[in-house]
# Entry
Amino acid sequence: MMSAMILIILCYMLSSSCYISFFLLQKHFLHILAFGMLAAAFILHTALLSYQYMHFGQMPVHNLHQTLSFAAWAIAGVYLLMRFRLRLKILGAYTAPLVSLILIAAFFVPQSDPLPSTVLNSIWLVVHVLIIFVGEAALALAGGTGALYLMQEHAIKSKNPRFFLKRLPSLEFLDSTGYLFIIVGFTLLTVGLVTGFVYAEKVWGRIWSWDPKEIWSVITWLIYAALLHERLVAGWRGRRAAIMAIIGLAALIFTFIGVNFLLEGHHDEFTRW
# Structure
């Protein structure tokens, strides 16, 4: 499986190189190559995760290596899906390098085979993991779109805006795209939390146990809920929304990784990092 992982990483890295070259040179054939390599890497990645699921009989999110790999897969998949809806080519210059970095980190993380556990066999866990990871992937792309918005806004206000103005979409388009990602991500995150509560009730006999992962998941949810509320009620647009999307992404990263390193809770029972 390590050789397969190396091949997948190389494909994502080649896609990253092509996307960055496309961003700099604006040659259409570079985008075709970048998108093709990203799609090929995603297909190979899907095959690897499917093999791991069938081989171990469990969702491949048992340890940090598998969790990072699954997160990278979700981000690539959401981008490829939304790429046809949004036609935001340049976001690939954020997505492909991000996926590559996550997988490189996963490659160097020690691996361990899953231990037999009945708590990993619930259909609620499968549904919870899929929905949560896809939702978080959409929110990660919202954070990237927010960063692009701030770059374009800075370019417009600077004395020499030509470089970014020619390469990035309009501020209005970036703002509406980031909003769409947040709507999708927040909806899935909400459903994922609900399925997580159902799963917790079945495994631990209660839906809430003040587990650090639960607490920070709710904190992250509240940040995005506040963003959506202020956008709908107070008319937050543009810079404020972009900054909040980045803050939300920071909270998401801490919930996803930081909590498991710094705190302990029920999730350690089936995610032994």
In short: DSSP finds nine helices and no strands in the chain. Residues 1-113 form one domain.
